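User: what does the whole thing look like in 3D?
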Amino acid sequence: MERSDEQLMTAYRGGDAAAFEALYRKHRGGLFRFVARSVRERRLAEELFQEVWLRLIEARERYVPLAKFSTWLYAIAHNRLIDHYRSSSLRSVEMMAEELPDPPAPAAGQPERKVEVRELGGRLIAALEAMPAAQREAFLLHEEAGLSVPEIAEVTGTSEEGAKSRLRYAVAKLREALKD
Amino acid sequence: MSEVDKELSERYRAASRDEPPAHVDAAVLAAAKRAVGSQPHPAGAPRFLRRWYVPASLAAVIMLSVIVTLRIERERPEIGVPDSVPVVREKEQKLAQQALEAPAAAPVFPPAPVTSRAAPKPASVQRAAPVFVPDPKPARDAAPEERQREDSLRSADAARGPAASGEAAGGNVAGSAASGRMRSEAREMSAPAAKPAQSPVPAKRERAPEEWLERIAELRKLQRDREADEQLAEFRRRYPDYKISETMTERIAPRK
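Assistant: Here's the predicted 3D structure for the full assembly of 436 residues, as structure tokens:
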């Protein structure tokens, strides 16, 4: 019988390294894409992705399986992204509270990005990266982490109505991009 | 979830297939293993046991303190030893009874005169002489001096009252009277004049043959030949098979 994420994390907290590996294999792709779509730059995404996992490892003793593991994991990722945005001074702190700032645009002519846009249905990705960070985050949390609206609200620290509104805006923009 | 339709979701998943590189995977997994490898509790005590370390230590300290306090409280009365303590009184009473029984039960060596055999001997000094108990004897076999001393003690007890006159009284009054007598005698025994009979030897204590012979030799040395002869005869009766060394034979032999 396959163990739940919460059971795996509890086992890892008790010293079971194999449980962590199972958790990591399950969530590595979604979390990486969540971070990568949020910062756009792959190298930075790798760095932040690694840091999120390291924070989780450090915080393992404090883990209490009251909520879904993925909610906890993506909350750590959300906080790490906020820290990154603050340290980058991209926007003022006041704006971050209401809406995550847009990450800096990739350098023009970056070959990596051009290939991705061309090969992976660039319009959808372009629309995703063009939308406000808070809306993008809500969509990514729903798609990559499989979180519900209340869970998105919990991770991002907003109300359920706010989370639902952001997700609706994001979906509308992506549908519009696909129509074009 | 109705906010995102299935088609949009499939399109997004088809377009976004990024994965972390292998070196990142390796770094994260290594960090995870290091973290649990360095934590002490899987190899050590379980978490639920570690939770009880502090309460268990406190309980142990409190119990130890209580035990030590109770022990001190119990032992305290024996530290002071006031005269009125029943334990001490009992001991004194026992000593007094032994002293009273001693003359009737065994022959008593009179104390050795320091200067001359003809010198008068105080009764208290006589009582302090070491007592041999080879065989219990009736009181009439005791030395005349001892009988006299016993009589005087009995008359003194009778004069004090029936409570102090004997074992029948058995109470603290008799005990305290006897113990008072014993204390005064002990003071006299510790006087320099009574040196040969210093140790308040309890009655009925049987000496070893060597010790007995040594005492006979001492009597001989003090020219108390009659007593030495009596003791030697008594010794022979008591230990007919005892082989006396040549040296000791010379020391205890009657002088010519």
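In plain terms: Residues 86-201 of chain B form one domain. Chain B touches chain A through 32 residues (CB under 8 Å).
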